[in-house]
């Protein structure tokens, strides 16, 4: 009888363990997507107490590598996957699909004490390449420009490279930061600094500039008049676990995840 009871208990523990495993989800990648993802995870776990979701903001490149290697359930990215990355995932036996969850405006940001209000794409390229080194050359004070950039694992860095640098290299004098939050802190403390960040990070500790005379916002991203807009992604396996798919459905729901995306400061793709 005791042996029978132990067998039943062992089976129950196995089922419980498997059920727990089925509801454990790991999300890794973009620090741009991170603020929205953290709020979506918090809301989802509150509504689904049996689900455990962990989130890490390690950068788009690292998130994409993790999904290719199969070490994360879902990746966050602020840039599209490259064809070679899609091929690598397929070659490892678990092809993936990028899903656009939001739109973003990349904002050039300066310290609030900086009088400059607008820069053109050409001026931004000149500043970040090191060809323009003094604020007086773009309508500001006679101060040396301190260039702040994301590191090369960042999707925001790659988007900036495509939209602004256009083949020019970021100056080797640029101070590289590992996260969107770190960029914000540096600029908020340095009156001569300039950087770029996703619009949801822009708060009253810094000031966002207009680009070519256009301010980034929902309307200018939608009509494509703002020149530094981009999609934000999650990347999911084609054979995604049903429990993880439910979370993806939550992210894409206008009443749930998409509403949170708007509250954070990005622009929903479903309303």
What do you see in this structure?
The chain is an alpha/beta fold. The chain folds into two domains: 2-103 and 232-268, Periplasmic binding protein-like II (D-Maltodextrin-Binding Protein, domain 2, 3-Layer(aba) Sandwich); 104-229, D-Maltodextrin-Binding Protein, domain 2. The protein has ten helices and twelve strands. It has helices at residues 2-22, 34-47, 60-69, 83-91, 121-129, 155-165, 180-189, 218-222, 242-252, 257-264, and strands at 24-29, 52-57, 74-77, 96-110, 118-119, 146-150, 175-177, 193-198, 207-208, 210-211, 229-237, 267-268. Strands 1, 2, 3, 4, 6, 7, 8, 9, 11 and 12 form a ten-stranded mixed sheet that branches. A two-stranded parallel ribbon has the order 5-10. Helix 3 (60-69) runs parallel beside helix 4 (83-91). The chain is globular and about 60 Å long. The protein starts with a helix and ends with a strand. Mean pLDDT is 92; it is low at 1-22.
Search tags:
single chain; 271 residues; alpha/beta; D-Maltodextrin-Binding Protein, domain 2; 2 domains; ten-stranded mixed beta sheet; two-stranded parallel ribbon; 12 strands; globular
**How many angstroms does the end-to-end distance come to?**
59 Å
**What shape does the CA trace take?**
globular
How many structural units, i.e. domains? 2
The fraction of residues assigned to DSSP E strands is: 15-25%
Helix segment tally: 10
CA radius of gyration: 22 Å
Q: CATH homologous superfamily name of the largest domain? A: Periplasmic binding protein-like II
């Amino acid at each position: 009888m005791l042996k029978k009871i132990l067998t039943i208990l062992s089976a129950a523990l196995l089922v419980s363990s498997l059920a727990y495993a089925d509801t454990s989800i790991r999300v890794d990648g973009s620090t741009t997507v991170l603020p929205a993802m953290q709020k979506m995870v918090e809301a989802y776990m509150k509504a689904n107490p049996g689900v455990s979701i962990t989130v890490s903001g390690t950068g788009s490149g690292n998130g994409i590598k993790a999904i290719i290697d199969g070490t994360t359930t879902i990746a966050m990215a602020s840039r599209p996957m490259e064809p070679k990355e899609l091929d690598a995932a397929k070659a490892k036996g678990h092809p993936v699909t990028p899903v656009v969850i939001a739109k973003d405006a990349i904002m050039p940001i300066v310290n609030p004490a900086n009088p400059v209000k607008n820069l053109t794409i050409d001026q931004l390229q000149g500043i970040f390449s090191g060809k323009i080194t003094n604020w007086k050359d773009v309508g500001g004070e006679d101060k040396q420009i301190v260039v702040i950039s994301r590191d090369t694992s960042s999707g925001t860095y790659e988007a900036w490279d495509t939209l602004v640098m256009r083949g020019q290299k970021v100056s080797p004098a640029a101070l590289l930061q590992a996260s969107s939050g770190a960029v914000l802190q540096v600029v908020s403390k340095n009156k001569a600094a300039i950087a770029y960040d996703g619009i949801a990070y822009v708060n009253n500790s810094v000031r966002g500039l207009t680009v070519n005379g256009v301010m980034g916002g929902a309307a200018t991203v939608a009509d494509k008049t703002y020149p530094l807009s981009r999609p934000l992604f999650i990347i999911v396996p084609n054979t995604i676990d049903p429990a993880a798919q439910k979370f993806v459905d939550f992210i894409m729901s206008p009443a749930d995840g998409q509403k949170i995306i708007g509250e954070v400061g990005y622009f929903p793709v479903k309303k």
